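Why this split exists: single-chain examples teach little about how molecules sit against one another. For that reason, every record in the complexes split bundles all components of an assembly together and asks for one structure covering all of them. Below is a record exactly as it appears in the raw files.
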Amino acid sequence: MHGGRLLGTPVLWVGVLFAALLLRMDALRPVLQHVFPGVEPVIYNRDSFLALFLSQLGLVAAASFAASLAGVALAVFVTRQAGRDFRAMVNALATVGQTFPPAAVLAIAVPMVGFGARPTVIALFLYGLLPIIENAVAGLEGVPQGVREAAEGMGLSAWQRLYQVDLPLAAPLILAGIRVSVTIAIGTATIGSTVGALTLGTPIFDGLVANKLPFVLEGAALVALFAIFTDMLFARLERWLRPLAD
Amino acid sequence: MIEIDTVSKSYGERPVVDCLSLTVGDGVLCVLLGSSGCGKSTTLRMINRLIPMDSGTIRVGGEDVRRVPPEALRRRIGYAIQSIGLFPHWTVEDNIATVPRLLKWRQARVRDRVAELLELFRLDAETYRGKYPHQLSGGEQQRVGVARALAADPELLLMDEPFAAVDPITRDALQTELARIHRATGKTIVFVTHDIEEALRLATVIAIMDRGRIIQIDAPLEILERPANDFVRDFVGHQGLGLKLLSVRRIADRLRRGETAEGEPLALDASLGEALSAMTARRTDRLSVCDTEGRRVGVITLGDLVR
């Protein structure tokens, strides 16, 4: 029954397509050779696509995990009595973080932390903070006043109110924020290749530099599928969480 | 037993509760009655320390509430509010079990208590314990809200306009139920409302408040018959005073014992208002009256109502 439902959903097919391209891109060699005659090699071969994907997955996971923790923590802080005054400031800082182009963040970060994965993770972290904070604040503030008053009036401590009432009720919105943040991070991470991080953006930039269009297409297709597949997984997670809050 | 002793609270320059003193004895249902902004809700919330008082003392069961940690105090005091505030992500059972679980009751005891309370509110335990709040009607939600407030058998129950947001028919049913539960459990209850009819119907004692002070504190009948001043007289309302008196007086006081009459009998503890209503509906001037066991004990006539 459950398997049948899964088969009928796009998430499985997108996942299969993504995995197939990731592992067996060379199966497309005849097609690509036909479309791009004279380009050799026609399949990017400096690193395996799987290694590039795993490296990018690691960067995105590290940055998004840190941004989720920091973003939710900041949102919790500014929605408590003690942190209320900081709310405008935190929001402003996160917005500023969002307006910096990630390329600029990389340019600033490289002289400070060097080339490679680190500046990329920093840029992704800063860039991903805003949607998480905004959604988490909205979710926490959306907990009905009556529910909060009842929780306090019945003698739940501040911690108990937070983790038994506020966070579970805000969870769908918090998750929606993380979903947006992660999807952005997957796309943005490709730029990290310009400062030496290994991502699925590496074939794109190599292809642009060496004027090899097939590399660009291969990288772009994989990044797009990566983002779409992840977004779909989050959508399923949200649907699974939703009935708890309704 | 709850003693409020010269308690004051102001927001900035504006006093909300002004040197208020009030003692509510065990088993009393005390209604704080007044228009909005008179300080009745603030007074209520100072009892469980949701609002800190500026000066004065409140004692619950002889103990100064400020000497008890607020969480521990609140777990001893039931609290029901107009917006109910059921936790939408928890089942009816989890909601009712909130305070017992905070108090670390054993699981079996919690389960029994939930069933007992649902029974008390005439909700079938097996049907309702697994439901979520959004699957309940407004009246059922408020029943669960009050059940939750009573869950850990608190010595005192605070209710802040709990029935103000439900429709009149449901409100009527909930009031009847609360009166029954108050009789059955003998809880001390402090009940805030702006609705005079509700106050007359439920209260053992009514405290009429205005601008942070108590203007008159008396039994419902006394408030109607001997208002302390023009404010109380205005608040209670000249219009329909007679009908309000009928709604407060009980048949038991006017009963003609030993006589008999035809038709469905009325309960001894019904109000004269209910008797008048039944007489009008049945086009009769004599009604049979029965006691709680259903034995016919006498009659009441139209003339008795205005004696």
